[in-house]
């Protein structure tokens, strides 16, 4: 599972590669403790990747909120100006 994030023109563009889960052969020889260590390491890596993806989504959400606030302000200013010009006729 890998995800590369790059910035292009101020936008966050994600290049998601195909997600693959590493599969373990059912004939792995080892003790259950070894399997627990492998599972814990695998879960730790997945949590780190999910945390990274969550941080990217939170950053995108903050940027979107800023853009929306600017657009709403511009729209309200436009309608106030048009209303004022219309009343002055």
TrEMBL record:
<dbReference type="InterPro" id="IPR039433">
    <property type="entry name" value="Mff-like_dom"/>
</dbReference>
<keyword id="KW-0175">Coiled coil</keyword>
<dbReference type="GO" id="GO:0005741">
    <property type="term" value="C:mitochondrial outer membrane"/>
</dbReference>
<dbReference type="GO" id="GO:0005777">
    <property type="term" value="C:peroxisome"/>
</dbReference>
<dbReference type="GO" id="GO:0090141">
    <property type="term" value="P:positive regulation of mitochondrial fission"/>
</dbReference>
<keyword id="KW-0576">Peroxisome</keyword>
<dbReference type="GO" id="GO:0000266">
    <property type="term" value="P:mitochondrial fission"/>
</dbReference>
<comment type="similarity">
    <text>Belongs to the Tango11 family.</text>
</comment>
<keyword id="KW-0812">Transmembrane</keyword>
<keyword id="KW-1000">Mitochondrion outer membrane</keyword>
<dbReference type="GO" id="GO:0090314">
    <property type="term" value="P:positive regulation of protein targeting to membrane"/>
</dbReference>
<feature type="transmembrane region" description="Helical">
    <location>
        <begin position="69"/>
        <end position="87"/>
    </location>
</feature>
<feature type="coiled-coil region">
    <location>
        <begin position="40"/>
        <end position="67"/>
    </location>
</feature>
<dbReference type="Pfam" id="PF05644">
    <property type="entry name" value="Miff"/>
</dbReference>
<keyword id="KW-0496">Mitochondrion</keyword>
<keyword id="KW-0472">Membrane</keyword>
<feature type="domain" description="Mff-like">
    <location>
        <begin position="7"/>
        <end position="89"/>
    </location>
</feature>
<dbReference type="GO" id="GO:0006626">
    <property type="term" value="P:protein targeting to mitochondrion"/>
</dbReference>
<keyword id="KW-1133">Transmembrane helix</keyword>
<dbReference type="InterPro" id="IPR008518">
    <property type="entry name" value="Mff/Tango-11"/>
</dbReference>
<comment type="function">
    <text>Plays a role in mitochondrial and peroxisomal fission. Promotes the recruitment and association of the fission mediator dynamin-related protein 1 (DNM1L) to the mitochondrial surface.</text>
</comment>
<protein>
    <recommendedName>
        <fullName>Mitochondrial fission factor</fullName>
    </recommendedName>
</protein>
């Amino acid at each position: 599972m890998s995800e590369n994030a790059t910035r292009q023109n101020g936008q966050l563009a994600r290049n998601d590669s195909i997600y693959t889960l590493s599969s373990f052969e059912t004939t792995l020889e080892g003790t259950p403790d070894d399997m627990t260590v492998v599972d814990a390491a695998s879960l730790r890596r997945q949590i780190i990747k999910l945390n990274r993806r969550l941080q990217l989504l939170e950053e995108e959400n903050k940027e979107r909120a800023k853009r929306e606030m600017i657009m709403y302000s511009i729209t309200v200013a436009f309608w106030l100006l048009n209303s004022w010009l219309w009343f002055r006729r």
